[in-house]
Amino acid sequence: MLVQIAWRNIWRNKTRSFVVIGSIVVGLWASIFILAFAWGLYKNNIDESVNRHLSHIQVHHPEFTDQQESKYAIQNADSILSVLKIDDRVQSASMRTIVKGMITSPTTVSGVTIYGISPNAEIKQIGLNQNLIQGDYFTSGKDNEIFIGEKLAKKLKIKLRSKVVLTFTDIGSSIVSGAFRVGGIYRSKNLSLDEVNVYVQKQSLDNLLGLQHSESNELAILLKDESALDSYITYVRQLMPNQKVEDWKDLAPDLELVIESFNLYTYIISGIILLALTFGIVNTMLMSVLERIRELGMLMAIGLNKRKIFFMIMLETLFLTLLGCPVGLLVGWLSVLVLGTFGINIAIFSEGLASYGFSSIIYPALDGQIYWIVAIMCLITALLSAIYPAYRALQLNPAESIRKI
Amino acid sequence: MGKTIIDAHNVSKTYKETAVPVRALQDVHLHIEEGEFVALVGPSGSGKSTLLNMIGGLDEPTSGTVYVDGVEITKLPENKLIDFRLQNIGFVFQSFNLIPVLTSRENIGFVLQLQKVSKKDREKRVLELLREVDLEEKIDSRPGELSGGQQQRVAVARALASKPKIILADEPTANLDSKSASNLLDIMAKLNKEEKITFLFSTHDQRVIEKARRVITLVDGKVDSDVNQKPT
Ligand SMILES: Nc1ncnc2c1ncn2[C@@H]1O[C@H](COP(=O)(O)OP(=O)(O)O)[C@@H](O)[C@H]1O
Ligand SMILES: [Mg+2]
């Protein structure tokens, strides 16, 4: 019967109950939305980095990572690559020759990382073809084409079809240089990389370096599904026990940190919103207790013990929360669903964000588990907030409460 | 001489929370036997409510002892006192007697449930009790849908639910018109006579006082007079 009384009590002051329910709904919705947006932002950044830049798995000669010298190459990379590609977990795989060097224009010199790539294989990985703002993607048939970022082009004051010279050390440690012509200018989502990464055909670079075409400094493997990463990386390690096999988390520990810190943000953001909720609930429930002093006094007089009074007030709060939570979850889930499909255009800020590798359309997304965490936190907060008002009810002395009649 | 049901010795109560301590009761002695129908009268502020609260165990005296049906309730710990109240004492207050969200049936049923009466017996008892106060037709009305007099009658029925030996009523008629007041008193008198329930009620309504068989007058926290009379 206490349950029934508590349930009916919440409908005595409908406005007040709706305020509590409403703040729970808004609190939940806001938490969910902010978290989904933040996650969308990070995910966007991570996906971009993984898909366009890192790939899921990279394989290098063990010395290459430290020394960054092209002579540390993986032998028979081409045949290994064809083995890797057969696996149906693999989306695409490519091999690259990488060397650090200088690019020289008629006016300026700049340090660059030169990637020797296989144009066809990289369509699915680096995706340079999609990012070109000028020129065509390796279509001239000439092997001295170079593709540079817009930012670098500005710095070097060069245009499409301009001539540049690349200078670097070959595998025999002598300095070599080669003349290239700008075949295209690109702009990726990561402006800081645009300034240093330049792309040429692998054969041309191999020839200058003195590497075999079968050799390669980097094997990059993009999987169809991230979830296959752990099993697949084990397989790759068995296949190439002498090489250094790393996944994207090893390659960019900062990205993994982003994910970990995101979990922390989950709690901090929800915590702040829920704190606001706490004030609302404490206030409202306290008001409802103080309004009912005489009635509570009467209940104590007719034989309701303190435990039952406490339980009744807690139940009232629980009911309000249970009414608010599903609605808040639903509204949150729906808005994430809708905005996750259409995206939120943050073009106004994207200039700044793009330099950090963010794109201008954010697709909010949230792991199902986070919904439950937020909802449970909300429930716990509501119940904790009810403790003080319920405790105040216990402090009432029946005689004095009734005297107020 | 009948069995003693209420026995108060040297009961004093001083409210110290106020700026100036208020001596609400001073050395009150009170002896009431089973089946009595007693009115507690006196001007406002004379200590009637305070005395009823001491007897009902809703508050503790500053000094003195109160026995109800042989139990020294002034010594009972809080939780035992609640149970004792539930089993032995029925309360009727001036107003706010009923749980506003419950119907008459549920208000009475709730007290029965607190006493762990089975659902089947509850239904039967509720009907019986409402019949006693002549309000069967209001069984499914909430307090808000009842007149003041009807609410007080449901309150009496609710007070009776636990089959208490005594009913303490603090100005039960204060908010009622004279017709409802005398109707309520008639019901109380009938219960007193037929069920042998002891009634102790405070009032300052002359017509109500006339219905009592014993009238105790308090003045400034002391018993001023204690007379037996023939009720009208
Ligand atoms: N809780 C309380 N705190 C302080 N003073 C009180 C309290 N309850 C009653 N009093 C005082 O005690 C005196 C007796 O009050 P009360 O028993 O209510 O009288 P009555 O019911 O006869 O009008 C009054 O002076 C009243 O102001
Ligand atoms: Mg009074």
Task: Give a short summary of the structure.
With 405 residues, chain A is an alpha+beta fold. Chain A has helices spanning 2-9, 14-54, 64-67, 77-86, 119-122, 128-131, 150-156, 191-194, 202-209, 229-239, 248-251, 253-291, 293-301, 306-342, 347-354, 368-394, 398-403; strands at residues 57-60, 90-104, 109-117, 132-135, 145-149, 163-169, 175-186, 197-201, 218-223, 244-247, 344-345, 361-362. Helix content of chain A is 57%, strand content 19%.
Which secondary structure elements does this structure contain, and how are they paired or packed?
The complex is a heterodimer of chains A (405) and B (232).
Chain A: H1 2-9, H2 14-54, E1 57-60, H3 64-67, H4 77-86, E2 90-104, E3 109-117, H5 119-122, H6 128-131, E4 132-135, E5 145-149, H7 150-156, E6 163-169, E7 175-186, H8 191-194, E8 197-201, H9 202-209, E9 218-223, H10 229-239, E10 244-247, H11 248-251, H12 253-291, H13 293-301, H14 306-342, E11 344-345, H15 347-354, E12 361-362, H16 368-394, H17 398-403
Parallel strand pairs in A: 3-8, 5-7
Antiparallel strand pairs in A: 1-9, 1-10, 2-3, 2-6, 2-9, 4-7, 5-8, 6-7, 11-12
Helix pairs in contact in A: 1-14, 2-12, 2-14, 2-16, 12-16, 14-16
Chain B: E1 4-15, E2 22-33, E3 37-41, H1 48-56, E4 63-68, E5 71-72, H2 78-88, E6 89-92, H3 104-114, H4 119-132, H5 148-161, E7 166-170, H6 178-195, E8 198-202, H7 206-209, E9 214-219, E10 222-228
Parallel strand pairs in B: 3-8, 3-9, 6-7, 7-8
Antiparallel strand pairs in B: 1-2, 1-4, 4-5, 9-10
Helix pairs in contact in B: 3-4, 3-5, 4-5, 5-6
Bound molecules: adenosine-5'-diphosphate (ADP) and magnesium ion (MG).
The site of adenosine-5'-diphosphate has 13 residues of chain B, from strand 2 and helix 1.
